[in-house]
Amino acid sequence: MIYENQIVLNRGDYTSCSINVLGATVTSWRIHHQEQLFVSRESHFSGISHIRGGISFVFPHFGEWNMGPRHGFAREIAWSLDKGPEKLENGDVFATLSLDHNDYTHSLWNYKFKLLYKITLCEQKLIFNIFVENGCENFPFEFEILQHSLFKVPDVRKCEIIGLHKCRFRKAGKSDETQLEDRQIIKIAGKIDRIYAKVPREVTVSNMMNGGTLKIVRKNTYDVNLWNPWVHEANEIRDLGTVSG
Ligand SMILES: O=P(O)(O)OC[C@H]1O[C@H](O)[C@H](O)[C@@H](O)[C@@H]1O
């Protein structure tokens, strides 16, 4: 069921996940009451731009795009509910959203495609399955996908990111020049905006809400975007709200 644009997966025990059909954006993930995601209070939910925060769906292009909006169109348009929410025997709850090519997407990117996005809420984790169907007969297309995730943390300076050691990275939006990450543990102490390539399957972030560690496990994706605009730049992003040091 969709109520006020939201699809809610409720696992009981105050564990839930909300997905806004606008961009199939995951706007809330609560584990036993505790919110794990950051969504700006200044965010627009009316469709005039993408939702600022949560987990947004970047497709078919990451970054500035001369064919359409930055980070693609998928985060800016309404998706459909394809299936669910449905409870599985083990108590997990899932829903599948879909986005089909239409006149608008064709005006920017002239391919027939269908995206299926299955989100499963488990006791302590979220599982995402993404399917991209190519409806163009004998005609391949290239695309980029990113789940742009903004996490809520008590103090970002205390978070330790593990898993990027020895990966090469480039600065987002800058030249293709790459550098080697020589730190086993990355701490954020200022602005950072990087794309790490060929990242191992698992990256962890410690000192999340309640002091827990978040494990991000990926399959068939190779790059990781690490972004924190820090105070000055954050204050220039109008829908992010005021940030103090
Ligand atoms: O403001 P947006 O279009 O949502 O982009 C937010 C951020 O997305 C990614 O993390 C990019 O690497 C950043 O350069 C960008 O600032």
TrEMBL record:
Pathway: Carbohydrate metabolism; galactose metabolism. Pfam families: Aldose_epim (PF01263). Transmembrane segments: none annotated. InterPro entries: Aldose_1/G6P_1-epimerase, G6P_1-epimerase, Gal_mutarotase_sf_dom, GH-type_carb-bd. GO terms for biological process: carbohydrate metabolic process. It catalyses: alpha-D-galactose = beta-D-galactose; alpha-D-glucose 6-phosphate = beta-D-glucose 6-phosphate. Keywords: Isomerase. Its EC number is 5.1.3.15. One of its GO terms (molecular function) is carbohydrate binding. Gene3D superfamilies: 2.70.98.10. One of its GO terms (cellular component) is cytoplasm. The keyword Ribosomal protein does not apply. Belongs to the glucose-6-phosphate 1-epimerase family. Mutarotase that catalyzes the interconversion of beta-D-galactose and alpha-D-galactose during galactose metabolism. Beta-D-galactose is metabolized in the liver into glucose 1-phosphate, the primary metabolic fuel, by the action of four enzymes that constitute the Leloir pathway: GALM, GALK1 (galactokinase), GALT (galactose-1-phosphate uridylyltransferase) and GALE (UDP-galactose-4'-epimerase). Involved in the maintenance of the equilibrium between the beta- and alpha-anomers of galactose, therefore ensuring a sufficient supply of the alpha-anomer for GALK1. This is Galactose mutarotase. It comes from Rhamnusium bicolor.
